[in-house]
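Researcher: I need the complex structure. Ligand is coenzyme A. Inputs:
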Amino acid sequence: MDPHADPAGLPEGAPAPFSLKPETAPTVASPIAPDAIRKVRRTWVPVRSLTSRHRARIRAHLLGLDEHDRYLRFGFAASDAQISHYADALDFERDELFGIFNRRLDLIAMAHLAYPPAQAVPGKPALAEFGVSVSSRARGQGLGARLFDHAILHARNRGIQTLFVQALSENTAMLRIARNAGAKVVREGPESEACLDLPPDNLVSQVGEMVEGQAAEWDYQFKAHAHRVHNVIEAIAGAKSEIATALRGTGDE
Ligand SMILES: CC(C)(COP(=O)(O)OP(=O)(O)OC[C@H]1O[C@@H](n2cnc3c(N)ncnc32)[C@H](O)[C@@H]1OP(=O)(O)O)[C@@H](O)C(=O)NCCC(=O)NCCS
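Model: Output:
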């Protein structure tokens, strides 16, 4: 059984006001597109742009993927050395990298939006390639799809016409993310390619990127501050317990 068949998770026959299945759609055309409904149902998660400062965290995140995930992400079971090389070689000037951090500031999901070196080939649509990984414990919460939406916004705003994903045909979750966003998926044996035509940028997409970027920055600074406060509290608690132990030793308590 496909556990993802009914996105609303409702029993059969139950009223499903937000169901995306065509057979349960209202006969009167809904003013809201299905993909818009899907986005509303997802909680907003801040996505931060990554820079070369985050290289070590990117490496740590990717090294945390098990062999099968590395195979799905890179098309082969990349070794630790190959992952380190990939992290070292990331070009933050040409490409864009995005990440989602948890409260402890661990990078739990990241995406790589790779722009080809020669972007403007006359007569050919400008393409960008999307690659993503989510830590195993953070899966199934919409983070992969959230990063895909974020990449769409950024790619549009940079004049990209087609977003491209190369995935193994067995990678149901990745292909589902792409299909949900409207991509055409072409399967060639064990490999599949998903292509999503992007609309041109507009004021909404430009402002959307700005607002998202600022909100993610505030979120990160807030988490960083909370993290520092937590470390100070831990240090004070540690010092207090050391003093208490020392005092017990001298009998002065
Ligand atoms: C692919 C990957 C990024 C998905 O991340 P995720 O955060 O778990 O995905 P989401 O929670 O956003 O789910 C996206 C969609 O896939 C579906 N899905 C998630 N896991 C699934 C699974 N194991 N099987 C089938 N569908 C699945 C979700 O239900 C959702 O569809 P819906 O919105 O229609 O319900 C993650 O599994 C991963 O990191 N895999 C290893 C690396 C990889 O495969 N990268 C992609 C190649 S570049």
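Model: Summary of the prediction. The first helix runs from residue 34 to 41.
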